[in-house]
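Now for a typical sample entry:
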Amino acid sequence: MAKSGKTASILLLNGPNLNLLGTREPHLYGSETLAQIERRLTARAKAAGVKLTCVQTNHEGVAVDCVQQAKRDGVGFILLNPAAFTYSSIALRDALTAVQIPFLEVHLSNIHAREPWRAHSHFTAVAVGSILGLGSRGYDLAFEFALERVKAGGGA
């Protein structure tokens, strides 16, 4: 429980093409599917008594709407893999700064070790932190951090 007595809540928001995990360039992103990652984190959330909502979208407006809804729903922390939105979505960044829900930026690959244009993220400067290059394990680490924050009432 969060300090307010409400069930603590975390949003896992994944951007474009992450629905293709497991088959998309496994040498970069691994062979685990997004569904497998979500099942693992959902089980961990359930065991911890925390609500985890998982959303994957290929549409920027849907991601923005999801972040805005998270504020209305009292979400305490967001785990965000913006995928290609990393390099292009000022709208999603603005939504995140507007709702003031703390979030971690997660990337499966090390965006700084790839093409030069991938080295700049619109989210890093406004995120609590970033986890990148650790494959799907990065989601686990991000979730554990978020879990500690929301259980302590240090989310939104």
